[in-house]
Amino acid sequence: MGRAKGSHTARASATLLPVRMRWWRASSLLAVSSMALVYLAGVTQLGEAEAEPALPVPAVASDPGAEIADFRADAPVGADDPEALLTAALDDADLALDLVEARPDPDAGELSAALAAFAEDAGEFDPVEVGEFFTGLGEEHTAWLSVLYPSVIGDLPGAPFEARATANRLVIEAAGEASTRFDGPERPWTAGAERPPREEIAELAGGDREFLYFDPYNNSGDGSWIEVVGDLATAETVTVLVPGGSAVLTSANFDIYYQRAKSFSEASDGRLAVVVWAGASWPSGWIEESWASWAAVAAAGLSSFTADLRAQVGEDVPITLAGHSYGGAVIGLAETDELAADRILHIASAGMGNDVYEPADLAEPCRPRYSMTAPGDPIEWIQGAPYVPLLGHGADPDDFPGTKTLFTGSLPDSPDATDDVGVSLVDRGISGKEVEGVHSHSEIFYPESDAWDNLLAVMLGERPEPAEEQPPPIGGC
């Protein structure tokens, strides 16, 4: 009996062993294949970041007035001025959709050809030269184009910010309407049912939020955006805030970063305008966010945007470039190239950028640079990781030579203090607590905390409170 039982066990083990081996082999193969696919995706993203010479901006030698008169004649409805057409379209989603779907005919004249070229290759032109193109057209003609061809103007780096904001009001209205018209499978129980609009877009329709770029279809349908909070025309200083991971329209981060930007702008009494810049493909989740390729693509677009911003706000308005979490890796890589920024601010940053480990790796090592990371923030686990091609985000900004590290302190203890989305700190049971630990990654944005005060001070060009320990200075700076 014992021998028979032993033989049975041996046979069972012999049978199970190949099954286990096959399971582990399949699991290993799946893991390797997944990593290979992510790596290839990263290589593809990195290819998009390779710089190419800017295309020449088309010239319009003839008077554009005649062509714009033709555009107006072909519009779905007549209007005496651009504002009247805008108002009509915001009240009529079908009209807004018609305007957004309009495309210039490249064979209809010089201005039409130029607009068609802009529509085809929007990001391939020098934004400063594009701005000069519209200066030549004049404000009235540009205003007409923003409502007659909103899909061209709203997506065009270098076009005047006011025109882009107007165009994107129509883009948002049209996107909400278009989302109700997507065909779905026919079912008896859905006959005659109306499809609701995309929630995050419907909430914006008719509102006063201002977008310099709004693409509901980028990021595999999750969307991307560039938003102004405050008044760029009157601001004494401007901050470009680059969000962390999952910076897409369908994420809660879309509203969270708006609220964070709003808290800084409103506290400045009009001195500060904040631009939330999420105008690129964006990673979501730790696996994608560990790759530098998305940051490289975003950094190229961000660098171009700062040149556009500088041209439109003027040389006398200081620009602070701030990056939170993954956004820190974006601004770090942007610093390795030409960049229009007076100050750099790393906020719980993932790093100085892939393969950036010393000041000589930056285009302007002596540019004023600040960094803030609270004790116990999980981002510390990846800051300063050793160099691996396409992986990781370079040196730790808190230890980088020449950087001024900032005090994080405590949350406010006033009874009406709130977090960054308006929830009472008293109700949450965290009033007055030290900013530290897992939740500090967001707590540094809680209004009127020591950390938030320091961030606002940097944005306003004032003197923030430093941390006790500081990196060494850069010789010669």
How would you describe this protein?
The protein has 477 residues and is α/β, with parallel strands linked by helices. Helix content is 42%, strand content 9%. It has an 8-stranded mixed sheet, with helices on both faces. Helix 2 runs parallel beside helix 7 and helix 3 packs across helix 4. The protein starts with a helix and ends in an 18-residue tail after the last helix.
CATH topology of the largest domain: Rossmann fold
Q: Average pLDDT across residues?
A: 89
**How large is the count of helical segments?**
17
Question: Rough shape?
Answer: globular
Helix % is 40-55%
- Count of distinct structural domains: 2
The biggest beta sheet, please?
8 strands, mixed
User: What radius of gyration results from the CA coordinates?
Assistant: 26 Å
Separation of termini?
86 Å
- Order of strands, main sheet, comes to 1-2-4-3-5-6-7-8
Order of helix and strand elements from N to C terminus:
HHHHHHHHHHEEEHEHHEHEEEHHH
CATH architecture name of the largest domain: 3-Layer(aba) Sandwich
Query: Which class of the largest domain in CATH terms?
Result: Alpha Beta
- Which spans have pLDDT < 50 for at least 5 consecutive residues? 1-17, 26-34
